[in-house]
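Q: What does the assembly look like in three dimensions?
Context provided by user:
Components: two
Sequences:
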Amino acid sequence: MFDCGEGTQRRMVEAHVGFRRSMKIFISHLHGDHLLGLPGLLQTMTLLQREKELEIYGPIGILEFIKAFSSVLGSPGFPLKIYEIKSHGVINDGEEYQVKAVEADHMLPSYSYLLEEKPTPGKFYPEKALELGVPKGPLWRKLQYKQDITLDDGTIVNSENIVGPQRSGIKIAYSGDTKPTIAFIEAACSSNLMIHEATFDNSFKERADENYHSTAEQAAQVAKQANVNELILTHISSRYPDVSQLLIEAKEVFENTIIAEDLMIIEITKEGITVIPQDN
Amino acid sequence: MFDCGEGTQRRMVEAHVGFRRSMKIFISHLHGDHLLGLPGLLQTMTLLQREKELEIYGPIGILEFIKAFSSVLGSPGFPLKIYEIKSHGVINDGEEYQVKAVEADHMLPSYSYLLEEKPTPGKFYPEKALELGVPKGPLWRKLQYKQDITLDDGTIVNSENIVGPQRSGIKIAYSGDTKPTIAFIEAACSSNLMIHEATFDNSFKERADENYHSTAEQAAQVAKQANVNELILTHISSRYPDVSQLLIEAKEVFENTIIAEDLMIIEITKEGITVIPQDN
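A: Here is the predicted structure of the complete assembly.
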């Protein structure tokens, strides 16, 4: 989860995202609209008897914030690990993915985040394995994970003869609140999806600059320069009841742009993103 | 405002309740679902440049809670007065209404609240004033506010000849989270409206007792004993996707019962309450 504004727990219920699932939370910065869903979320997790550990990452101060409300409301009833990010780099490295932080350019210490799936093993061809005399079983797994093996009769079987090339994972770039930055463009290079804030339209460019935010056009320029596949605009000011102007502005620079909506579900593949239609 | 759960500011926008209006906030107790809307609400008021003072009342600890999140998120940009309630009684006495607190019986220090409108002047009969030779002007106001007056010719005019009897104000009783209590029944006597928690149905009576909550039937008994006009049940456990069972249970004891819904608007008069239909 990237950022946790007020009401997140309610949205989780609506989106059927369970409170006991494995997850990590990454907070971009300590402004209320990115943060104030945490106290209620942790309380609900406790109430629903979550047992799994939860990790929360954020700028310096996140620990004090969580301690502050816990001292009044009580501490979470499950293991909670809080990591304060001190500089850019890989902040979480797991089996399936890693997360990198990049300094953003906002009013206070802020980070953009990159979620990068680990490469997955290449496609395994069982018929080729059988042809070369490798029986179904643990040896297949070794081959899939790029180990060459030796059969009982001394025959060496090379992984690369049975398994296709490794497949790279999906990469997602999340800006948080920020002015356009070179660091984020570089870190987000060739992402499958960029989620970028677009607080203002271009007529408020000066105001965006003063408030350390981006316009829709600037977000599109960042996406274009980072050579990403798709761009989703979010964090749009409530001054825009109709967001079409921002979409037009962005699409002039970067065609593959959509605007985020509450409860939107998207499928992300190498080929692009697909918005999954919702019943309602 | 009585209690301020997570997401209150969003509901205020939906209900067209402005962030700069005169208001006071009364928190029943320091559990997240009654409290966690405050940080975001105060932030949004600051963002929208509220200037009017805001008063917040609650049990001991409310001050520490507001200080705790303000130290991370910044202090409100408008005058904020926080009152910690130490015992029952009148906690706010204004021109138009007063608010009383009554100790509730919950897991931690908790209060029920009574909102009582001040009596309003009786109906003024201008034709009677003119008949008795009182010219339109400041003397009329004196008469309306129960002062007798003397005209230039020495005639004394008694207020009671021109103004009907004083009209009593509306009285609303709000339980907060609590087991049924005698103190609340007494304080809520003859309210025009009682808003009472009904966390459980009667089959969970033991559990309600253990958790310092009420069942729908108990809430109805409280309403009946307090001889109120109308009862609204709220704070119903999420275990009830269908609340009709609770309504049936309550109505068997106290007929004038309805169940609260998000964004419900009701008009309260001496004659009863009316749910105002909403456009959607």
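Follow-up: Residues 90-120+167-280 of chain A form a domain with the Metallo-beta-lactamase; Chain A fold (CATH 3.60.15.10).
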